Amino acid sequence: MHKVLLPAGIPKISYGIREIVSKGFEMENKGFPVFWENIGDPIQKGITLPEWIRDVIARKALDNSTYGYCDSKGVSRTRRYLAERTNAHGGLQIDEKDITFFNGLGDAIARVYSQLDSKSRVLLPAPTYPAHSSAERTRIKQEPLFYTLNPDKNWMPDFVELREMATNHQEIVGILVINPDNPSGTVYSRENLEEIVRIAEENGWFIICDEIYENLVYDGEMTRLSEVIGDSVPAIAMKGISKEIPWPGSRCGWLEYYNRSSNPHFDAFCERLDQCKMTEVCSTTLPQSVIPEIMSDSRYNTLLDSRSQAIGSRMDRLKSLVNKMPGVYCNGGGGAFYAIIHFDPESMRVPLPVELFSPERYELYKSWIKGNESPDMKFVLYMLAGFGICSVPLSGFNCEHAGFRITLLEETTEKFTAMLTMLNESLNYLKQSTVTVAGL
Length: 440
What we know:
Blueprint: H1 16-19, H2 21-29, E1 35-36, H3 51-61, H4 76-87, E2 99-102, H5 104-114, E3 121-126, H6 130-140, E4 146-150, E5 156-157, H7 159-168, E6 172-178, H8 190-203, E7 206-210, H9 225-228, E8 235-240, E9 253-258, H10 264-279, H11 285-295, H12 298-322, E10 328-329, E11 338-343, H13 359-368, H14 375-387, E12 389-390, E13 392-393, E14 403-407, H15 413-432
Parallel strand pairs: 1-12, 3-4, 3-6, 6-7, 7-8
Antiparallel strand pairs: 2-9, 4-5, 8-9, 10-11, 11-14, 13-14
Helix pairs in contact: 3-11, 4-11, 5-6, 7-8, 13-14, 14-15
């Protein structure tokens, strides 16, 4: 074919969470064990759905109606149930018309950003989950606008900076909040969410709040956007079942529209999203159909509490290990199942002692290095080649701080302990080494 298909100047789509996988496979193919800490898939890490949840799904799969189309916005009964769950928190009250299902939040995220005017900007946190930044980057064909999350303040935003961004960038129409946060796991306080709502109201912004981890909180109290949004600021909350049931393969997420009637432009935007969904007919019927029965079962909250406590225990063990090391930090946490480990800038200037690796590990590392990697990417490759830990550099989350994200999902205590041992060795290996490696 001789005709150009892609528009000129479009940015490269990068998804660091998965791009590291091929190198992990190289490790395994050479017989080296790998700790897969790069992706938040609870099933891959050993979580088994309780038999009662699988029974609910199996029974519903015998219902012939679950093999057909449902309403384009989603199964009506399920949308009514989810609206009631949101309303039970005592804030903004919605109904089933305010909820639309998508094939996972990845689908919803891509659709939301794609329908915004190309001259408008959504202000994104840094670090941020790459599905959001990639969708914004693809739409505007340049680097997005970011506000900084400060690791010294538990990865919370600087509200002075947010107001300065509002003054200096009149093209901003919305702001993204991820709560609990990915990659840091930080849970926003009610006061911080209220301040974001105030800033949005002052500047005529709408809010996107990714709440996919809303029911996995182990430290602090979860405040949902619906509880603080009031009756004038338009907003979209993003939710789903992939992380909490957990059923990532279901590809089942939904948007909740808040205060549609408060702004005709926002109402038209939500209508456009629903029209786009209509062109696809609907999202998958079966996973939507089982939500009310699973979530209304008394065993469901017990399950979530148990999982949250286990994640919190792993975070405690990780912090007790990392925070004893000078120049290495593990801040944040409280929800979701991720942790950020970041470094003083000086730590990243220390040459990586890769020549101390075995010859085969050293050759693997050298084959991966192209010379243009960020310091934290070099460290992630060093940690994978030398110690078998597959993680994601913070630069992959659009963050200027050097560090990496790992998961807290490992169900097997022995495997989690082994991973911590390798993590400890990798960090100590770096600190104790006096070897200078030319070019690193």
